[in-house]
């Protein structure tokens, strides 16, 4: 099919591991890319990465753009006598999707392939069939004897899902599009924005999936005059879901966030995002997300009241290994962010 963006980089970002607090591998990719696209790059004690493009006209006015690096995953909490791994969740999993999935265990001496066990339905009782799935009930099978497992794996080792990222019709599907597709959009915008009037700080944050922790800390250090966060949002535009619960629709463009459960975006900011999209002919839709938080909230009041906005990539099947986003929506997100940053002069009044 082909897309109007660098699919290979998106695939690398999504397939690279990085759970909350241990974003090392994906952070290396982000640092490499930001070094090529910004004037300077730095990290902080939590592992957030900031690439700065200095403003040509008003360098003292700062806009922060944020997208989080971490993906939901697990930490090994116990190794059973039989050599199976019990897990503690890092982020919000829907345990129904975990049965019989392949995983990768990141042990000290290297990665190990594993599968999440699933009991054949032939042997289940009626009570077992009706029992709700939970992460606490998940076990990972490494296909090794118990002594070998105990020698190779320790409590505290990390576990991520094993999945490739592929084209699916007009879409991209794989693991960790939340939020690597937005990291990708941010990096693409960083490459396209040339000599902005204001200073732009492109922020790749950590630990969003466990409470917006990286962005909250970064909001103190960066202290922007304006912040725009990027994240995926719900697109439940599939059979069986009422239209008012679908939130967004694939193929209808970038989503401009009005609210989620963590933030109400600044009206003047989301109105200007809409105005830029209309002026540039960029497909867009409005997002009202009933539950779920984003890094937007991490910047809104951490270092005093700040104007904030957010752009979202509509995504089906969130927090699974088959997260799916439309290629045109991804391109529209890049276009809108680039146009918005290019039009920011530091003179827009976002006060209420």
Short account of what is shown:
With 352 residues, the protein is of the alpha+beta class. The protein is built from nine helices and 17 strands.
Structure description:
It contains 9 helices and 17 strands. The chain folds into 2 domains: 7-71 and 175-343, Zn peptidases (Aminopeptidase, 3-Layer(aba) Sandwich), CATH 3.40.630.10; 74-161, Peptidase M42, domain 2 (Elongation Factor Tu (Ef-tu), domain 3, Beta Barrel), CATH 2.40.30.40. 49% of the residues are buried. The model has no long low-confidence stretch (mean pLDDT 93). 28% of the residues lie in helices and 29% in strands. The strands form 2 sheets. Strands 1, 2, 3, 10, 11, 12, 13, 14, 15, 16 and 17 form an 11-stranded mixed sheet that branches. Helix 2 packs parallel to helix 5, helix 5 crosses helix 9 (327-343) and helix 7 (267-280) packs across helix 9. It is of the alpha+beta class and 352 residues long.
List the main descriptive attributes of the protein structure presented here.
single chain; 352 residues; alpha+beta; Aminopeptidase; Elongation Factor Tu (Ef-tu), domain 3; 2 domains; 11-stranded mixed beta sheet; 6-stranded antiparallel β-barrel; 17 strands; 28% helix
């Amino acid at each position: 099919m082909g897309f109007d963006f660098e699919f290979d980089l998106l695939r690398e970002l999504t397939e690279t591991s990085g759970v909350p607090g241990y974003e090392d591998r994906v952070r290396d990719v982000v640092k490499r890319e930001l070094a090529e696209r910004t004037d300077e790059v730095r990290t902080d004690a939590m592992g957030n990465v900031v690439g700065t493009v200095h403003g040509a006209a008003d360098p003292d006015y700062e806009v922060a753009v944020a997208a989080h690096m971490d993906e939901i995953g697990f930490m090994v909490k116990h190794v059973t006598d039989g050599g199976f791994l019990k897990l503690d969740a890092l982020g919000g999993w829907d345990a129904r999707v975990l049965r019989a999935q392949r995983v990768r265990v990141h042990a000290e001496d290297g990665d190990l392939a594993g599968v999440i066990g699933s009991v054949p339905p032939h042997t289940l009782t009626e009570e077992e069939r009706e029992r709700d799935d939970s992460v606490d009930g998940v076990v990972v099978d490494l296909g090794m004897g118990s002594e070998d497992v105990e020698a190779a794996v320790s409590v505290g080792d990390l576990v991520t899902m094993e999945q490739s990222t592929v084209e699916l019709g007009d879409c991209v599907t794989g693991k960790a599009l939340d939020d690597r597709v937005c990291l990708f959009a941010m990096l693409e915008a960083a490459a396209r924005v040339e000599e902005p009037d204001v200073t732009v700080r492109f922020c790749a944050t950590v630990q969003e999936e466990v409470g917006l922790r990286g962005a909250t800390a970064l909001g103190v250090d960066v202290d922007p005059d304006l912040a725009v966060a990027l994240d995926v949002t719900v697109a439940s535009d599939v059979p069986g879901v009422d239209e008012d619960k679908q939130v967004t629709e694939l193929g209808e463009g970038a989503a401009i966030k009005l609210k989620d459960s963590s933030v109400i975006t600044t009206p003047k900011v989301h109105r200007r995002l809409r105005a830029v999209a209309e002026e540039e002919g960029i497909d867009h839709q409005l997002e009202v997300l009933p539950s779920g938080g984003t890094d937007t909230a991490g910047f809104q009041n951490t270092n005093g009241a700040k104007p904030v906005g957010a752009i979202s990539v509509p995504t089906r099947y969130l927090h699974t290994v088959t997260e799916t986003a439309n290629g045109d929506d991804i391109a529209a997100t890049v276009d809108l962010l680039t146009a918005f940053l290019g039009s920011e002069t530091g003179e827009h009044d976002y006060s209420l």
